[in-house]
Amino acid sequence: MVATLWPGVDPEWSRTIGVPSTSAVDAPGTVRRWHVLDNGAQLSRRGLAPAGTLLCVHGNPTWSYLWRTLLAAGSDAAHPWRVVAVDQLDMGYSERSGTFRRLADRINDLGDLTDALDLDGPVVTVGHDWGGVISLGWALAHPRQVKGVVLTNTAVHRPSDSAIPPALRLALHPLVHRWGTTTSDAFLRVTHSLANPPLPADIRDAYMAPYRGASRRAGVGNFVADIPADASHPSFPALTRVAEGLRGLKVPALMLWGPRDPIFSDRYLKDLITRLPHADVHRFEGAGHLVAEDRDIATPVFQWLAEHGSVIASEPDRVEEPTSGGHGGNGAAGRSHADFRALWESLGELATGPAKEDIAVAEMAPDGSVGRSLSWQQLDRNILDLSSGLREAGVGNGSRVSLMVPPGVDLTVALYACLRIGAVVVVADAGLGTRGLSRALKGATADFLIGIDKALAAASVLGWPGRRISVRDLPAARRRILGVETSLTALAGLGAKHGSGLPVHVVDPDAPAAVLFTSGSTGPAKGVLYTHRQLAAMRDTLAETFGIRPGARLVAGFAPFALLGPALGAVSVTPDMDVTAPRTLTARALADAAAAIDATVVFASPAALRNVLATRDDVSGAGHPALEGVGLLLSAGAPVPERLLAQGQQLLPRASLHTPYGMTEALPVTDISLEQIQAADAEAAAGTVAGAGNGVCVGKPVHGASVAVVPLAADGTAPGSHAVTEAGVTGEILVSAAHVKEAYDRLWLTQRGSISPPGWHRTGDVGHFDDAGRLWVEGRLAHVVTAPGAVVTPVGAERAIESLDCVRLAAITGVGPAGTQAVVAVVETVPPSRKAGLAAPALAARVREAALEAGVKVSAVLAVPAQPTDIRHNAKIDRTRLSRWASRVLAGGRPGEP
Fold first, then answer.
1. What share of the chain is helix, strand, coil (3-state, %, to 5)?
2. ω before 143 within 30° of 0 (cis)?
3. For residues 503 and 392, what is the distance between their CA atoms, to the nearest angstrom?
4. Contacts of 641 (CB under 8 A, 6+ apart)
5. How many CB atoms lie within 10 A of CB 490?
6. What is the pLDDT of residues 806-816, one digit of tens each?
7. What is the DSSP string of 668-710?
8. What is the pTM of this model?
9. Separation between Cα atoms, residue 548 and residue 540, nearest integer Å
10. Average pLDDT of every residue of the chain
11. How far is Cα 126 from Cα 258, in angstroms, rounded to an integer?
12. Quick one: pLDDT at residue 894?
């Protein structure tokens, strides 16, 4: 037994087996010695009948050790599976054959081994690196046995217009290849260095052990040399057969991916998704090439096996139908198309109606005048022209199009043109920052990128995916530098000439329509997938909840609503501001935009509203009447303090001020007006309504939505799936509505955890209902503090502290181990403190007293010149960052800035 000393490996699993070879590179009668890690005998000894077999195939330069966590999980009596992890010939502890074995040989070799093991179905293959291709080749050759495939970072096809990854190109170079892969152990060390976090020394030693000495590394070098660089390579036909064969493989599939892989990047994942569109896909942000080392893959693999158990155990002729495009969504089978009204349908009606010459969409110029604008007739015509031009350029049904265009005329036309032809728009806020934006766009793997100059330059430098289309025509030299193929202007002109000859595309209501990225306030921004039906439902919910009808005139200072305005039939104007920085909206810019269209509705984020109020003295005389004509203000995206709304009422005296609660996954969820907030707060203070208080009242569910909570446990989690609506029960907030997202894009595990119980979306927020049926939000589940004997939600105490005249903003966070955390209050004072650190005794005493009145005992009070906010919403305090900072300060570290 050769694998007795390696961490995580049970010695009972290690075995060798003589396998008769049928390979053309071996002489007839050759028997090859294989080493495998196999828990089959162990399961048999324990009297456990396995549900099936996982056939695990490593790549280069690893060995069967890569799959030790699957072997351990498969040996669990709760879900026994036989796991056979092979060492390929010339690799690991298997025989060094002395022959050059190409891809086709290795697929054949694996078949020889499974024949010798008498491996019958059901079999689920698991592959990594080039082991992924070999495992898939085996699956295609054994259709009766294979019942599922699991893939980690691998590839089956390289587009002819893309180069081999630089690391492999270097390893293939004649001056480097032999030394880098065989003479030295450089290739192994470089591969092991890709782990994130770094491999512990004993794990690294285990990976190195079978390859000590150049004579043991010939297979490593041969594997690299067998990479098909082009169609002339001897293994190219075998690779192509596997790649094309996947299109007919209908068994369940799971892809677990590390995006930080310099070899198998997201473009290879995208290719695999096109070949296995029914696959469940999860990208582990931060993980890389050795994803099985970087993350726990055993748990999701066995969860997935359990979910597909009936299909895996079925007869050979039964296959699984594609589900939801690999996204793990809610599914849409059987939904009627009769009640579906596409997002753009009202545009055609308005373009031929009495208001066809009226302004539909406009954007303001810096001098306060209307810059560009389109009438309803022009808007509809431009959308039709551009959609035709996009189709001729190759944008089609299912194509992903990243829109890097500020809200306004160009974005409106591009968005609706893409949706009309069935393309999936990808929208990520530039406020995510360069790093966050790159992470989002690379993960979405768009086929096309439409952008302004600044975005195209960033795409060129940062390697964002997609064929590039500029908004405006660019000089030839600039086009070459930025890699731009054409422009929206050129495509619209092309569509105007030839569009009438193209057939009308009929969009499936339940097909993907948009991937909208979250703010990233609780981790890396997530792509949220919406179907056409769900976008239409969002439009209808807004219309019914807020009474927005065709003819309404809105100022869109909040990007999501800027895109929905035309769908609502509302005249939409974008004020002069940087929409990626809400604080750039001034009162004067708002007034100018309102005056330009006689606005009746204003959408503004809390951060934008805060700056509008700070600059209200700059409003000109003509601006005040325009603001007085506004009948509805909506402010969403983060909590809005009541005193901020009260100040807003003075600027918009006739407006009904509403703060709908929602998130990227469901917008809106509930709604409440200023008057209702004031009434709820008064009832909470008087104690006349049970359950009122301890949070922010966000009102009642919007049209068509249902809301419930899953009660919190003593450890601050929300286990189980029992949804309740009783007053006074704090729990994770759930929402169910027609406009809730379909899925998280390529985040199968995240999606799986967000829909328990089925039909509900778990928001990650915590709150409770009062006896009047109103919802009170108490904060994020991730920010709950688990103090000794108590679970503390932050918002109630924060509001109490913010009622002090010396406090502008407050945040409650926890310091220390879960269950024994100290409650820490971090305050931004009025006037601002000069430096961060422990609060003055007098201030600390007042803060503690205010928090205690809200039922929270504060252990420490810290002051900061300014609260750190998340990367997009300036009104959302980054409590996670504050917790780390507070821990450092209270441990005696230098305060610095949080």
1. 35, 20, 40
2. no
3. 12
4. 802
5. 16
6. 998 899 999 99
7. EEEE-BHHHHHHHHHHHHHT-STT--SSEEEEEE-TT-EEEEE
8. 0.92
9. 9
10. 91
11. 15
12. 82
Angle 308-312-318 (CA atoms, 0-180°, nearest 5)?
A: 110
CA–CA gap between residue 841 and residue 829 (Å, rounded): 14
Asked if the peptide bond before residue 757 counts as cis, ω within 30 degrees of 0, the response is yes
Rounded CA separation 123/121 (Å): 5
For the domain spanning 11-156+231-309, the CATH number is: 3.40.50.1820
Dist. CA 262–CA 463, nearest whole Å: 13
Which pLDDT value is given to residue 339? 80
Q: Please list, in sequence order, all residues whose beta carbon lies within 8 angstroms of the beta carbon of residue 846, skipping any fewer than 6 positions away.
A: 804, 806
Do 577 and 609 form a contact (C-beta atoms < 8 A)?
A: no
pLDDT of residue 502: 62
Burial of 10 (0-12, 13-18, 19+ CB in 10 A): middle
Tell me the CATH architecture of domain 784-890: 2-Layer Sandwich (3.30)
**Does the domain spanning 670-781 belong to CATH 3.40.50.460?**
no
Which H or E run contains 779?
strand 775-780
Tell me, yes or no, if the two domains 11-156+231-309 and 375-507 fold the same way: yes
- Structural domain 547-659, CATH architecture: 3-Layer(aba) Sandwich (3.40)
DSSP string spanning 123-146? EEEEE-THHHHHHHHHHHH-TTTE
Would you list the DSSP string of 411-437? Answer: HHHHHHHHHHTT-EEEE--GGGHHHHH
Give the residue-averaged pLDDT of 294-307: 97
Place of tokens 């792509």: 527
Q: How far apart are CA 615 and CA 623, in angstroms?
A: 13
**DSSP codes joined into one string, 49-78:** --S-EEEEE--SS--GGGGHHHHHHHT-TT
Separation of alpha carbons 527 and 437, rounded Å: 11
